[in-house]
């Protein structure tokens, strides 16, 4: 069993596991219980009353966080038709089959997001088994399969994050960094909460959002009061 450090024990003691904190209290506590020497990421997790085995209950999409994410994303654009547009919009890498082959043969992953124009999807499908588990496969639902490459790049660079339900019906997302002021973290919380609420499947009856918790990298989970 892993040994818990004194520092982690001390911050764990600050969190009442039986309490539901207001989002304002939870964010303050998340900042106080961050124990890393680097600027930790603040994360949010929603536990939803959905059954992801059914296609109509799979929640997936993307949102541009109004307060930013504090994370710099390297973007690979795969296109034959929008090369100049991608270069002008400051994509980190631009290519077509050549870069798909580089991923397949050299295990090249010096990027965080792939944006592709539709004509590249047949080729990309050939390495879907490699990209899928890493969450890198472009998808029209998240705006990463598009002819509007400039818009996609602009949104990603501004702080676009993708979200999707896992097998247990949980949705995880970045809220920002510990160094963010509370106002920007609150903006991001309100934005992602609104998106999740609007994505409620018609088949879901009764309570939809069962639990919300926030945490920082290596920090304790803090349960959030769900306000209507």
From TrEMBL:
The keyword RNA-binding applies. CDD domains: Ribosomal_L1. The keyword Isomerase does not apply. Gene3D superfamilies: 3.30.190.20, 3.40.50.790. Keywords: Repressor, Ribonucleoprotein, Ribosomal protein, RNA-binding, rRNA-binding, Translation regulation, tRNA-binding. One of its GO terms (biological process) is regulation of translation. One of its GO terms (molecular function) is rRNA binding. Belongs to the universal ribosomal protein uL1 family. HAMAP family: Ribosomal_uL1_B. Binds directly to 23S rRNA. The L1 stalk is quite mobile in the ribosome, and is involved in E site tRNA release. Part of the 50S ribosomal subunit. PANTHER family: 54S RIBOSOMAL PROTEIN L1, MITOCHONDRIAL, LARGE RIBOSOMAL SUBUNIT PROTEIN UL1M. This is Large ribosomal subunit protein uL1. It comes from Spiroplasma diminutum CUAS-1.
């Amino acid at each position: 069993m892993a040994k818990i450090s004194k520092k982690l024990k001390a911050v764990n003691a600050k969190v009442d596991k039986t309490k539901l904190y207001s989002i304002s209290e939870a964010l303050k506590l998340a900042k106080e219980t961050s124990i890393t020497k680097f600027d930790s990421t603040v994360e949010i997790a929603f536990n939803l009353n959905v059954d992801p085995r059914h296609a109509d209950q799979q929640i997936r999409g993307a949102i541009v966080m109004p307060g930013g994410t504090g994370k710099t994303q390297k973007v690979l654009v795969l296109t034959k038709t929008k090369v100049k547009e991608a270069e002008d919009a400051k994509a980190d890498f631009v290519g077509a089959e050549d870069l798909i082959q580089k991923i397949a043969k050299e295990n090249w992953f010096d990027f965080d997001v792939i944006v592709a124009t539709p004509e590249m999807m047949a080729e990309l499908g050939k390495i879907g088994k490699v990209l899928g588990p890493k969450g890198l496969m472009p998808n029209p639902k998240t705006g990463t399969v598009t002819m509007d490459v400039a818009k996609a790049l602009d949104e990603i660079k501004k702080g676009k994050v993708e979200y999707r339900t896992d097998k247990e019906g949980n949705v995880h997302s970045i809220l920002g960094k510990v160094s963010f002021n509370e106002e920007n973290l609150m903006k991001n919380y309100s934005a992602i909460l609104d998106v999740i609420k609007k994505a409620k499947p018609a088949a879901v009856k009764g309570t939809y959002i069962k639990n919300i918790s926030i945490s920082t990298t290596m920090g304790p989970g803090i349960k959030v009061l769900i306000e209507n």
